[in-house]
Every structure is written in structure tokens, then in C-alpha cells.
Hints:
The complex is a heterodimer of chains A (308) and B (432). With 308 residues, chain A is mainly alpha-helical. In chain A, 60% of the residues lie in helices and 0% in strands. Chain A has a single domain, classed as Ammonium transporter fold, CATH 1.10.3430. In chain A, helix 1 runs antiparallel to helix 2, helix 1 packs antiparallel against helix 8 and helix 3 crosses helix 4. Among the domains of chain B are: 156 residues, 3-Layer(aba) Sandwich (Rossmann fold), CATH 3.40.50; 70 residues, no CATH class. In chain B, 30% of the residues lie in helices and 20% in strands. The mean pLDDT of chain B is 93. Classes of the chains: A mainly alpha (308), B alpha/beta (432). Chains A and B meet through helix 1 of A and strand 15, strand 16, helix 10, helix 12 and helix 13 of B.
Amino acid sequence: MGKLHISVSPHIRSSNTTQRIMLDVVISLLPAAIAGCIIFGISALWVILACVFSSVVFEALFNIITKRTQTISDLSAVVTGLLLALNLPANTPLWQAVIGSAFAIIIVKCLFGGIGCNLVNPAITARVFMLIAFTNLAKPAFPLDAVSSATPLVELAEGSSPSLINLFLGNIGGALGETSALALLIGGIYLLVRRVITWHIPVATIATVFVLSFLLDAFSFINALSWVLSGGLIIGAFFMATDYVTSPAVAKGKIVFGIGIGLITVLIRFYGNYPEGVSFAILMLNILNPYIEKFSKRKLFGGKHYEE
Amino acid sequence: MAFYLKGVKLSHKKNTSPEKAEKISVNSVTIPMSMHIGRPANAVVKKGDTVAVGSLIGEAAEGLSSPVYSSVSGSVQGVGEILLSNGMTGAAVTIESDGEMTLDSSITPPTINNRDDLINALSKSGIVGLGGAGFPTSIKFKTDKPIEYLIINSAECEPYITSDNYTMLTKADMMEYAIETLVKFFGIKKVIIGIEKNKPKAIAKMRELSGKFNNASVKVLPTVYPQGGEKVMVYHTTGKVVAEGGLPIDVGCVVCNCTTVAEIGKYLKTGIPLVEKVVTVDGDAIENPQNVIAPIGAPIKDVLEFCGIKAEIAKALYGGPMMGISVTDLEKPVLKNTNALLAFSQKQAFVPKTTACIRCGACANNCPFGIDPVAILKSYKEDDYLGMKKAGALLCMECGCCSYVCPAKIPNVQNNKLAKEAIRKEAQREVK
Lengths: 308, 432
């Protein structure tokens, strides 16, 4: 009989892995990606492929050059690339998509220590960076058969109401993956069912936007709903704000985090210079996250109080 | 009670029948003097001595300790050193069995007239916490504080193990005798038997038992690991919170595993001390998983071979897969607190590769006590003792939920153990 294997308990582990979680996120984003390709045409597909492919390549190269363990098999670079693409207009020049991916992966993620160490969400930060760096991206793309020449957020701000059905299906102007609430909700529900995310952040974020929009926009239920379905709120609330690394781990903190995102989003939408504020709101709460985490720790069961 | 503490749902893998257990005999036994928490017993036999089943071979030391008895009849081969599962070495008596299993002629049931008699009998019985902890049972009852609740921990929340279930199904009479005596002499007000929902037969049997007392009841608990953790059990049966560093007696509770209670009954009725154990033998390297009754000190190898070994054993455990301790070699003996022996093939013996923490919070969110292993590890790396304590390092019972759920396969329990050890050493330095 050979030597026995010795290890510290527990001797069994759950089947959950980082790779499985990331794969679930990729699966959950596919409906939105497909919807984007249908609504905006083949150019959407090229943007998605450019972002995903270049994100993975940049992470692989970074690890090779800095002699680190190769991490691309955890699929987190695929998630970053995919999320970034879904947040870009379908007519984004591919070279800009590649630069955005490089920013997300190298600057925001790898230079801070790679997966789990980034302070802010790489995809969100890259999207904000691109918005500022490439002025052409401020003008969103429109569906192939578009009748309107303004995004719903602009329409709403100007006082007219876009069609709720179009908002729900996504037949509107905007980033290629953010317009179809239906596709995003399918993905969001998948993540909830698979227990990759909990309801706290999406519900807190969306409810805050709904309530504040209702109060600020003529106490109109329809308008409040339109504000929720427009822009990047659904994709932000379900897929970007729920990024583990940059959001609180505990339920109480998640709710505070979600309310914060909702609040800042509404403030930017109603009073800011930009028509959309979800990305900025998430980025800002990412930065505040360590403090939210600190103040939202679970109470220890029977824990002793230790003086400083 | 407002809510149940968190935990994890595990695959039960209770493959063995809890209704029968075959007695096995071995040629020789090696009985360590330290099979409990506290000071080792002092060996009182030497090479060449003749002993019988139940003969005293190790006298309890002063304070926290427990006596040790021979589990076979035969002759003492010597008192040697053995590497214990906690990494320390200690004395162990090796006895060659004559195969007769003759009972020591001096064995008589103890006479109990008062509380002190009972405490004395409990310490003489050699009984320790048989759920796995191995805390000398008499010490739990030796208290000035009133014992309001006797909680009989029958959760058996670890996968594979069915030995407590066996006790409940077959030793209810012994449990009854023990409860009767304990209640009478310790003035216990309430007896609660806590069982996980997945053992309907045992629940029925224990309801039958509790029906015989006017102050006993069965509490059926959800099948969530670690339901059998002492503080978890106290909270779920009484709603009381045992504070960090405290004991259940602080809130008027004494918690005993059901097999411990049955052994108490057996000793009080017959005078036979703790010399044998029901052991669940299971794992993918075992041909016929089953419960066996093994003499304490029996080599693990003999016990496993009795059940048939069908694959090369790459890993063996004392106890269940969540809190069990790795067996260093198969010549090691069955101990007082051994409730299961699991043997695994190479396929199940591997340790998964650890990757970077993605801060998903699964560890803290699944901890019954709300401990944050990520914060403990961070403080540990920074030698921040206060930080470790604040994150709950000393509250950790090492149940393993945090390591189990971690998608990055970080050995959280191992890290918490390191943190505890660091805190202990720091406290020692401060004293000096």
C-alpha cells in the first residue's frame, strides 16, 4: 500500500469553480448579444468578436510578458470583452474596440493584480474611458429599421415618450447589447436561477431609478417605466454592478450599493450633461465599495467585541 | 427562534444501514493514552501484564483527563510511543488478544446515590464526547451552574456517517436509562433531542423515547450542515447564543452526542466502561460499506479489511469528509471518538488547485457564524492580530463550509487554523 494523502479538512469541495461562474455569465449575456446582432446587424457581431478576442489575447500576453500563471482559462477576460462590447454602439470602429479592450484588461485589471484585485469594473471603466476618448461614440447607433433619430433617454429628456414595446424588445438606439430589456432579463433570470448573483443589487438599483424617476418625471408610471427600460440600466444593474470583485459581498451592503447606483444614475440623467449615467454611477460606487463593505459586515454570531 | 443559521447542503451519501452493526475481533490493539481533550492518561500496565476487557490500563491525570480501559482480554506487549492525529506523540499500550474477550471480574454497575456519585461514575466510565470532539463527559456535568437543558445532539450532519443513527435505532433503552439518571441527579429541567430531518426512523424512535418523560422532546431540524455543531445545535434547539470563548453551560445547556448518552446508560447499567465503538466504514475504496462495532485500539487496516478493500487507498479519514482528520497510516488505531472510517481511492483524494479570490463572498455568506475568512487571511498576512480576532478567527469551529463553497478552492479552514495558532502564540509572547 502506498503512502496516504494527508490534507486539512474539509476533504470534499463543491463543484462550483471560478470558470463555471464566468461561463454562466457568458451564457447569460448571449441572449443580449444575439439580440444586438439582430437589431443592429452584422457590424454588432464584429464589435463583439473584436472585444472578446482582443481581451483574451491581451490577458494572455500580459501573463506571458510578466511571467505570471496563465489565467485566460478562467474565462474572466471573455466576460470583460463581452460586457465591453455590449456597452458599445454597433458602429464602433474595430480599432477603438481593441484599444478599449486593452484599457480594460491591461490597465484596469492586470496592472492591479489580475482577477479579484481590480478596484473598479474593467468593462465599465473602459466604456467610460472610450466615451471620453472617442467623441464619435457619444453618438449612439440606431436599429437598421429605425424610425426615430434620438435615443429613448434623449426623447424622455425632451418630454416625449418612446414606445414601451420597442423599449422592451430593444428596437431603439443605444449600445448594441443594452437595448433589449427582454434579452437582458432572460440572462438576468438565468444568473439568479444559477445563483451566480442574488436579487439585491439589481432590484435595489432598478427600484431606486423607478421611484426617483416617478417622483421627478410628472408622477407618471409609464414614464418611470420608460426610464427604467432605457439606456444601460438593465444591463448595468444585472451584469455590471453585480461583478463580485467590485461590489459588496453581504446582502445589506448590496442594497446600499444598488440604491447608490440608482440615485447617481437618476441625478446624472435628470441634472447632468450626459444623457446616460449608469456607467458613471457604477464606477463611482465601485470606488466607494470598500467603505460600504466595511460598514455592512455581517454581525458575528456570539462574537466578542474587541477594542481597537 | 427567528431564523436558522446558515450552512451548506451536502450530498448525504449515507450508504450504510443504520439498523445493524457487526462486531469484529482483532488480534491485537494499540490503545493511546490520549484520545480526549486534556491531559493524557498515565499507563498503569507494563509488558507481560494480563488484562481483560474493561481492565484499567491508563489512569486519568489530574484535571481535564479521562481513564483508558483495555478493549480485549490478553497480554500487554508493551507501552510504546504513537504519533497522534494532532501531530503530537504520546504513549500507547499494545495488547495481544487471547481471542476470549473475557470481561474483567471486578466490573460491577456503579452505585449512584447522589450527584457526586454520578460525576464520579462518569469520570470512571472513560466516556468522552463521542460525536468527534472527545471532551471528557464528566467535566461537562461537573459545574456549579444550574443545568437547565440537556441537549442530545443527534444531528449527524456529516455525509456518510450513520453510527449515531444506529445508536438511536438500537440503543434507545440505554439512552432512556441515562436520561433518567442524569435528569434525576443533575436536576435537568428539559431534555431536547435534536435530529436532522433525513432520519425519519430515528425521529420516530426518539419520539417514542421522549414520550416516556414529561420534560423531554424531539426537535426535528433541517438537513443543513453543520447542524450538529455544538453552538448551532444549542441555538436551534433553545434559541440561546453561546458567546465566543464560552461553553454551552454558560447559557444553562449541556450538549451530549446520542452515542455518548447511550454509553453513559450502558456504563450505569452494567459497569462496562467505554471499550468499543460503532464505526461507519465507507468510502469509494470499500467493498461493503457498513457499520461495525470495533474494539478501541483496533488497527484501522483490520477494520477496513473486514469490510473489504476494493481499490488502492489513497486517503483515509477519521470521521466525516467535512471535519474528519487525515489518517497518516493504516496501522493507526480506532479511537474513543472515532465514529467513522472513510477510505478513498486516488480519484477522490486529490486536492483542487487554488486560484485567485474573486471576492464572491460565498465563504462569509455560508458561514453559520458570519465569519469572514477573506478578512482573516488578509489580517494574518499583515500580522494584524486584532484584525484576525475582529474578523472572527477565534469564533471559527472549523466546520469547513467556507472551504467547501469557495469557487477559487482557497483552503479557508487551513488559513483560519493558522490565524488561530498565530493569535495563540502572540498571546503567549505577551504573557512573557
